[in-house]
Amino acid sequence: MGFDVTAIRKDFPILGRTLKNGKPLVYLDNAATSQTPQPVIDVIVDYYSRYNANIHRGVHQLSQEATDAYEQARQKIQKHLNIAHAHEVIFTAGTTHSINIVAAGFGQILQPGDELIVSALEHHANIVPWQMACERSGAVLRVIPMTPQGTLDLDAYEALLNDRTRLVFVNHVSNALGSINDIERIIHQAHAVRAAVLIDGAQAAPHLVADVQALDVDFYTLSAHKICGPTGVGMLYGKEKWLNLLPPYQGGGEMIATVSFEKTTYADLPHKFEAGTPNICGGIAFGAAVDYMNSIGFEQIAAYEHQLLLRATEGLKSIEGLTIYGDHDHKTAVISFNLAGVHPYDVGSILDQLGIAVRTGHHCAQPIMTYYNIPGTVRASFSFYNTFEEVDALIAGVKKAQQMLC
Amino acid sequence: MSQTIAQLQEEIVEEFAFFEDWMQRYEHMIALGRSLPEIDPVHKDDDHLIKGCQSKVWVHAALEDDKLVFTADSDAIITRGIIALLVRVFSHQKPADILEAPTDFIDEIGLKEHLSPTRANGLVSMIKQIKLYAIAYQTQIKS
User: Fold this and answer.
1) Cβ count within 10 A of residue A44
2) Do residues A340 and A189 lie in contact, with contact meaning Cβ atoms separated by under 8 Å?
3) Bridge-partner residues for A213, per DSSP?
4) Distance (Å, rounded) from C-alpha B17 to C-alpha B10?
5) pLDDT 10s digit of each residue in chain A, 406 long?
6) d(CA A329, CA A307)
7) Is B34 touching A (CB cutoff 8 A)?
8) Of the candidates A311, A309, A312, the residue with the CA atom closest to the CA atom of residue A329
9) Is A281 marked active-site?
10) A234-238 and A89-92 beta bridge pairing
11) What is the pTM (predicted TM-score) of this model?
12) Catalytic one of B12, B29, B36, B53
């Protein structure tokens, strides 16, 4: 069966909305958050309508049903990323939370003089927790530089690696530019000096599927709301040996085996890192979102989104004075751009009046903006439910904005 | 006799009532932004930078006789248009009058609903800064 975007759009009630000025919604802010299809909304409604209960401890039927659904969701995520064991999947509040769990844990075991490597293309969520870990431990942060094309300088990375390197953390895909990083090489070279690797998969997850065992990655994390799931839930994959080694992040219920005032012993994985009542409904909906994305098919998604990207890139490049940042072949359907002499915020405001939702600003990746010496960019990010007509609306909208602002 | 804050606000409300759609309103804001008098470059520093705006906004105030004179700038043109309106209303007014003045003319000209949430927050920050200057200079006049 071919890719039928008209049928797919019917799954997303929000895409039928009309906005101020009577404009139909053109949603091109998918890298910030994706929209939610009816099958996932149904799962959320069904949970609260039929079997809302606390999990893992209950003796009653509702608790059992909720527990089963939550653990099934964990297994769906396990299968999706080809993770060896379900207990290596930790439910979190999202990628930021996941990274903080790992960074806080390493903050307690790193030694002064240990080295960590971050990339210049990171979201602040994959920078700041590590800076905090360095402050606590005396470890030193090194940075893989970026190139003018918006890729990573991996020769410089190789030169940074040494026997003091403990950990490397890089995003799979840059949120600001859409660049797909060569994580296979990054992981392989880090392992050669016995350093662990954390990959932030938040921006990769909507476009491609990571096979964590084939990658041999130590930690991988993503957020449900980037792949048609709800906000406030995500996952952290960690190799069993690492998750056993790292201290727990938060104390509380669920994460303990026994508690006395003399000594508390921690629960086994994954509960060690899941203190308190989790986002049960969110976790179950996360599983439903994974199912939904797979029912569309990631190969079809990638192929279709690439067509959207090509058309948008070609159309935007035809506009005089428009610069695309990170303009290269190895990227997801994200375009970060500016019009010469115009603040990105002004362009975003005009597009908003036209019903076109884009993101403007530094995209929580200020080092990239500093590198290009710009206040920010306009970022249009596409999803499999976007259409060629919407791409054309964007191009026409940018031309309109240029006409008004220049 | 110069116009009061209330008169100036009324004038702006009437001016905006003339526009038929968002595009005319925005074109007017952009034109206002272009006409905003330049701020002295020495005042475009961190001390005069307002936090809470996605675009950069600098506001400077000085007392001339018993009135406050505002100069301001932004790196975004639509934001400059908003600043131009605020400067037109609040500049060359007495600090006490600025403090007492309502600011709902922004709602009345249908601007706020057309501003993005971050820009609306920025607008609140700008008005707050103008009022803070008025408090500071009023204290100075009294002492």
Assistant:
1) 17
2) no
3) none
4) 11
5) 578 999 999 999 999 999 988 999 999 999 999 999 999 999 999 999 999 999 988 789 999 999 999 999 999 999 999 999 999 999 999 999 999 999 999 999 999 999 999 999 999 999 999 999 999 999 999 999 999 999 999 999 999 999 999 999 999 999 999 999 999 999 999 999 999 999 999 999 999 999 999 999 999 999 999 999 999 999 999 999 999 999 999 888 888 888 888 888 888 999 999 999 999 999 999 999 999 999 999 999 999 999 999 999 999 999 999 999 998 889 999 999 999 999 999 999 999 999 999 999 998 999 999 999 999 999 999 999 999 999 999 999 999 999 999 9
6) 12
7) no
8) A309
9) no
10) antiparallel
11) 0.93
12) B53
Enumerate the domain spans of chain B. Answer: 13-142
Could you please report the per-residue DSSP string of B70-137?
Answer: EEEEESSHHHHHHHHHHHHHHTTB-HHHHHH---THHHHTT-GGGS-HHHHHHHHHHHHHHHHHHHHH
Pairwise CB contact (< 8 Å): A349 & B22 = no
- The complex's ipTM works out to 0.88
Q: Could you tell me which residues are beta bridge partners of residue A331?
A: A179
Residues A345, B21: C-beta atoms closer than 8 Å: no
User: Which residues have CB under 8 Å from A197's CB, separation 6+?
Assistant: A167, A168, A169, A170, A183, A186, A187, A190, A191, A217, A218, A219
**In DSSP terms, which residues pair with A91 in a beta bridge?**
A235
Domains of chain A, start order = 5-30+298-405 (3.90.1150.10), 41-295 (3.40.640.10)
Assigned CATH class of B13-142 = alpha beta
Residue A192 is encoded by which pair of tokens? 């050669």
CB contact under 8 A, A404 and B27: yes
CB-CB neighbors (< 8 A) of B116 in chain A: 348-349, 352
Question: Which residues, at least 6 apart from A383, have a Cβ–Cβ distance to it below 8 Å?
Answer: A27, A30, A34, A35, A206, A305, A333
